[in-house]
Amino acid sequence: MSSIGDELHRFAAELYPICRSITGDGIRRTLKAIQRHIPLQFSEVPTGTTVFDWTVPKEWNIRDAYIKDGSGRRVVDFRENNLHVLNYSVPIHATMSLSEIRPHLFTIPEHPDWIPYRTSYYKEDWGFCLSHNQLTAMADGSYEVCIDSTLADGNLTYGEYFLPGGSSDEILISCHACHPSLANDNLSGLTVATALARELTERANRNYSYRFLFLPGTIGSITWLARNREAASRIRHGLVLTCIGNQAAFHYKKSRRGDAEIDRAVAHVLSHLTDAAEILEFSPYGYDERQYCSPGFNLAVGCLMRSVWGTFPEYHTSADNLNFIKPQCLAESLRVCAAALEVLENNKRYRNLNPFCEPQLGRRGLYRPTGGDSIAGEINARLWVLNLSDGEHSLLDIAQRARLPFSAILEAANLLQANGLLELVAPETRAEEDLPTNALKRNTAPNF
Ligand SMILES: [Zn+2]
């Protein structure tokens, strides 16, 4: 039997060859592949649609592209690697000298074997990306340059999976699905999000509803937010998943709020499940958390990564390939996400029904059978839960203060409740400041 990590890596390998972009058949094929695992709904938004300050662009599709030398040999060939074409290149078919082509060629001289990934979404242009070694091997002379692409009115496509739970409050999981043959950024996010959706579907009880979005980066989340302001107002917590397949320590970028429950939940889980994780403050650059955390929405959405975009040499190059992501890393990322959601699902407040001095746990079989120097971890967890369950502290507050894993605190709370020592505090009585404070809810949003 193969492990979940192997399964995730195989799925990444299936998606890897597809030439994705922010629109077109590449992203549709990718979403269809995800649809075989979860019942994804497709949305098609026509070119020219206004989405806040942006406009849905023309749809791009590509069949072939190459540079042929005088002998007719393809010296740069899209069929070998789809990174070879400047993503969103307009069509061209011409014979040109190397010096005429040169301004349209992109290489990485410091990594002469690697092909860079470049895009030109919002400026009509054409170009080729190639290894520096390929470029230096190109002699002066004339070349046939061909990009068999179309850039025309069409649609922007995104995929969405809504999974209802006990409450209409939602948890958002979002990842971009627009990069061509790049594995960590962001096939790792797509595959882990798909597996997470499948796991949650099989879960018997969900307190929250879940919304999974697979979108083209930036324009996709802007489009979704423009068309779903009502649903956006129900998002209580969210995670953007990206670059979570390589062998690097985890990095979690906090939401704009900085102290949201998702921020605390992920930091807690990382501190107990992984080594050397780093928590990063919010910044207005990065992935789609930029849109979810724009001031009009200010959603509690953070971004989970291993390597941070732009900081690892393989980023946006052909070296971000299937060897760069590892089955065990994908599996661990899935575990971290599932554990963080488990915290959110169970982060309740309780009231100690015996608050005047400690209840006698031994009488109830909840203490150690004989006296000694130390107490076992599970008894320590029970004492913390009893002490801090005053209706104000959540189980996550208690886990953090006790420096114990959330799962140990949850287990203690369940046991104490079953023994009549704790009662659940109804969520309605929770303090107002815990509720989302986004501008939509307060109805102070500008007329956008
Ligand atoms: Zn990227």
How much strand content do the residues show? Answer: 15-25%
Number of strands: 19
What spatial form do the alpha-carbon principal axes imply? Answer: elongated
Give the C-alpha Rg. 26 Å
Uncertain spans: 429-448
**End-to-end separation:** 52 Å
Q: Indicate the structural class.
A: alpha/beta
Task: Give the number of helices.
Answer: 14
Salient structural properties:
elongated, 8-stranded mixed beta sheet, 448 residues, 31% helix, disordered C terminus, 4-stranded antiparallel beta sheet, alpha/beta, 19 strands, binds zinc ion
Concise synopsis of the structure shown:
With 448 residues, the chain is of the alpha/beta class. Helices cover 31% and strands 22% of the residues. The protein has 14 helices and 19 strands.
Secondary-structure map:
Elements: H1 4-15, H2 25-35, E1 41-46, E2 50-51, E3 54-55, E4 59-68, E5 74-77, E6 92-97, H3 98-101, E7 105-106, E8 128-129, H4 132-136, E9 142-152, E10 155-163, E11 170-176, H5 183-202, E12 209-215, H6 219-227, H7 229-232, E13 235-241, E14 251-253, H8 261-273, E15 278-280, H9 289-292, E16 301-305, H10 327-346, E17 349-352, H11 377-388, E18 390-394, H12 395-402, H13 406-418, E19 422-424, H14 439-442
Helix pairs in contact: 1-5, 1-10, 5-10, 8-10, 11-12, 11-13, 12-13
The structure holds zinc ion.
